[in-house]
Amino acid sequence: MIRNAVRLHKRRASAILPPMSEPLAPLPDGSITSPRGFTAAAAHAGLKPEGALDVALLVSTTSCATAGVFTRNAIRAAPVVYDADLLSERPGRIRAVAMNARIANACTGPAGLEAARAMAHAAEQAAGLPPRTALVLSTGVIGVPLPVDPVVAGLRAAAAQLSPAGGVDAARAIMTTDTRAKHCAVRFDTGHGAVTVGGIAKGAGMIHPDLATLLAVLTTDAVAEPATLAPLLHRVADRTFNAISIDGDTSTNDTVLLLANGASGVDPARDGAVWKQFEEAVQQVARTLALAVVEDGEGATKLLEVQVVGAASEKAAREVGRAIARSTLVKTAIYGADPNWGRVLAAAGAAGVPLAVERLTLQAAEGAGWLTLATAGATANPDAARARAIFQEKTIRLRLDLGVGRAEAVVWTCDLSPDYVRINADYTS
Amino acid sequence: MIRNAVRLHKRRASAILPPMSEPLAPLPDGSITSPRGFTAAAAHAGLKPEGALDVALLVSTTSCATAGVFTRNAIRAAPVVYDADLLSERPGRIRAVAMNARIANACTGPAGLEAARAMAHAAEQAAGLPPRTALVLSTGVIGVPLPVDPVVAGLRAAAAQLSPAGGVDAARAIMTTDTRAKHCAVRFDTGHGAVTVGGIAKGAGMIHPDLATLLAVLTTDAVAEPATLAPLLHRVADRTFNAISIDGDTSTNDTVLLLANGASGVDPARDGAVWKQFEEAVQQVARTLALAVVEDGEGATKLLEVQVVGAASEKAAREVGRAIARSTLVKTAIYGADPNWGRVLAAAGAAGVPLAVERLTLQAAEGAGWLTLATAGATANPDAARARAIFQEKTIRLRLDLGVGRAEAVVWTCDLSPDYVRINADYTS
Q1: What's the pLDDT score for residue A213?
Q2: What ipTM does the predicted assembly reach?
């Protein structure tokens, strides 16, 4: 009986994180240009002060199968409207992504959509591409018109310097209040040849919410069809970027793109095992970038991982995890190193998911084991000094077992510090 | 054409706040004992330090028709479970409400329910009431067992001092981190006699969320039936207490009670005009208490009123208002006196309500008029100095017109300051 419980426990502990065989070693300076056939460059268009990079251009030597995941906000920024339209029309014909920081081109009316179109056209012309092959990404302040002429000039300057080493500069160009550029890549061998997956991202959500944007661009030299790439990207985004979208305030500009140009000659869809390797590689890149976003949160001093297990569905598990991760009470307790587990249960209860309080178990990771904080929905009388010590760590992992099923999800968030408030209290003016 | 627009504008401006003929003058020291036939007292049971009042008892000389609105959190504290059960069984037989602060009796398992029952029994015995006539309210830390013996002793001490002047002490006893006791009452004449409505409350939600509780007790000497009282209380709560429940984290203990003992001999249900007066009086008391809760928020320096007009339904209007009011971005901007209107639209867009961005108009109250910040979903190029001046006021009123219907709602919130984080970062330990 006890033995069974332990076995179950172990199974869950190992199953909770994505089912990766073994994480791949990240490539040095990996980015969107690590996969074959991609070049990039960045330039200064005058949007940021002091000559800092603020526009970037990514170009593929051949057409890419492309998938996109966009904000669910009812107010969608012009670049989101433009990209969603282009992707629905030509998901197999994408050649480039043009990006800018500082101005989100959101809440800018019909002129904003015209500006997004002009930005795409400029990228296509400057890189010698056919019309309707460039996507656009913008991040920055909402409600301010995009200055088209400087952005066009910046994209032309970038197009003149496209290079297979330019991906890291592109990551720098899309930074806003990010303190670190976010980029990575992994490579795996398939038996039919090597496949590389790379990506860049910038912060968003609860973390850089003022800038209203999580932007991520993933590239791969795998051969793929848009029809299979899109569901893969949705699955990956749900487990990575959507698992850190923690404030309920889905932004106006959130965009994740995945471009597959086929330059490796390897088509993962032909072999189930290779497809699994491929999806895991994409997920590893996405998760690395997503965690980098959380860790680089404004004012953040700690990382909180919330594992929800024993749920009736993965959706229910994720909803409960998100409710905990967006609770200002939980986040201030994490900041204060306060093992106030009642806040975690109260936040879980407010998720809108039916819960059986008498089946709830809450644990905190303590070294390689777990300290049980609450069981059957009531206190487990944990040792106060041990609980306190756990909450003083820089990374805190909580596991809430809902006790009603076998589905699981993981979400990540950072703490809420007085610095966060200070940083966000005065932005536009 | 312009004239029509102005007229429509005016109609909306006057209709936005609840349709009160004229606010009633608040009674001096008004509270739950202002209506005839109610007595109350408070005592020190040892839960708070230094002899501070921490338990309270409200008793009616006759049975009350009683309605309750309880938390929608899937995890309901023991007092909520107890009260909901008792009210479903005997909504016309309530005589008393026993209250305590400091310990919420939430996440306390079967022992917690037993403690709630013991608390109710103690109140009934001490006040000489029949069994199953007392409701219970608890507020404080989650997950800590309620110390029954001291609470019982405190309720006995309170029962020995019941007085028609005891309502304000009861308001003091339920305070936790509240800095001010919250109580009020109004009286109106019906032609058939005067009716009085009173109430007390303590803070909750985004404001005192650690204490996990908004508690409010409303009393009246009107004659009423439970069947008509319940829908009235739901309507009133939606427009008042639920309009300040702004963090998505519905607590485990939230409770609003309305007790009508009939001591005035006036039955408002017999006359539509009197019923309207009655509902307005209840709403005025509830709104006064709800605004007092927001204004007394931990670390709060400002009050934000969000009017959402032109919505397809009142529910849609309220959802949009709540999404704006719970946005940490909006709340930090209010703290920083930053007229960053893009955040308001982005938060509205994340409410889960379909919006037509090109129909959105956002205005800020400027004296008796309005300054338009955004129109057709894009900037209205407002004068920057005027916008800045508005956001530097202590009370800020925003009006968002969705442009798709005639329904409206108002929500209130406070700003998010570094002090809020500091106060909440270390509570249990």
Answers
A1: 64
A2: 0.74
